[in-house]
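@channel sequence for tomorrow's demo:
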Amino acid sequence: MLKNPLPVSVRFLASSAAVAALGVVAGCSKPAPGAEFNDPYEKPNRAVHEVNVTLDQAIFGGGDVPTRRYLPRPVAKGLSNAAYNLSMPSAVLNNILQFNGEGATRDTFRFVLNTTFGLAGFFDPAGAIGLHAEDANFGETLHVWGVPEGAFIVLPLAGPTTERDLAGAVVDVFIDPLGLVFDGKDYVAVEAVKIAGQVGDRQVYSEMIESILYESADSYAQMRLSYLQYRRNQIGIEEEDVIDPYEEFYAP
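structure tokens (generated this afternoon):
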């Protein structure tokens, strides 16, 4: 994916249009009365989920197929760290949009420290000294601005999301500060690290992922519950009597 050649003003208008259009969709999608989840697309979602699980098993193993580990764990963790580090400039911008100056400052220092002393983010010296990230993306920004969660969606390859988070992901592509700094081969390298980081994540968190996909009586229902709990926890929505299956992976 090369740098977007459109001028910044055009990209800003495009992202604004995406927010307006997808925000309206999210606002219109409300859970049916008495429904535990806002999942009006459950039938197609389940079909996409089955394809995603089949592909995951074919590539990474799991269930009745032996798990495949393509990278030594330190390398997988390093790639995961590097990809996460590349998300920090976008997090800084979204913290600013959320009027979270402390979070923006924290993520700026974290990005500078890990990029310089952590070998482009492969290592995490910031985390070692207690400087943890203030995660932020445009889906969270929309939440802060009052846009409702919308319906649950499962995307091919990308997996679970919601209408609001899908809108946020679209906008994040346009406003990512790295897209303004890098172009050509440099931007291809940035995208390659992000993709490698996803492979690293799959390997680092394989036990959790495989327990959801291959050890659940209904992997779709478990995946939906896990994702929504994780995402709501991430943006600060507390739910009583809920166990967050991702807690150990993002706790400081």
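heads up for whoever presents: The two ends are 33 Å apart (CA to CA).
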